[in-house]
Amino acid sequence: MRKPIIAGNWKMYKLLGESIETALALKSLVANTNHCEIIIAPVFTALKTVCDRLEGSNIKVAAQNCSTEQKHGAHTGEVSAEMIKDVGASHIIIGHSERRQFYGETNESVNLKTKACLLFDLTAIVCIGEMLAEREAGNAENVVKSQLIGALEGLTVTDMKRIIIAYEPVWAIGTGKTATPEQAQEMHAFIRQTLSEMNGKEVSETIRILYGGSVKPDNIESLMKQTDIDGALVGGASLEAESFSKIVNYK
Ligand code: PEP
Known about the structure:
251 residues, TIM Barrel, eight-stranded parallel beta barrel, 12 helices, 8 strands, binds phosphoenolpyruvate
């Protein structure tokens, strides 16, 4: 049984005070939830405070990015996986499409960042997903497969069991245009099949694959009914504690 995960990506939206306020409101709204793992990803400047305020709760905290560098040194502006671990976070979102599109993230950097997470015993939430033009050209599966192979290159079977995949079709992120549950299921099944070819069936059956792209309280239930959808990575609808708690408590 794969325990579902509902993760919220707060992107670059909240100041420190707003992050604390939303985190504490969410904490009380989901205090009795245990059917899924709950993760929120605040900005770096709020990471430690949010981790401290949520200590002992059922909400885990993720960073939204980390450095490709594993060793500390002269890397101005970078934050290492170890530093993220040091302030109490347990997960890192790696390779989000906004980083791939606007900040030069590549399959190679995603791979290095994933390895940095593993080295410091953090869980990488590795994001993959095709652009609209790639889907329209019939290339969605090829793109997703090469992102997957690139991101996970060199990982052992044990490593693979410690990561999470988030399938986020770029055309569905922040657009209000969700993939239908059938479209999402089809790609999730393809991802699981690819993982099975890469590392065997047992691993592929263990890995959780989240869907991301305009997930809202009114579409989460139908997405979660799909066999290969193990949770959601939520952007916009995670910014308000009330709407995110409705997604968390989808059943
Ligand atoms: C995201 O940022 O990962 C995301 C899925 O955003 P949204 O839910 O707003 O589409």
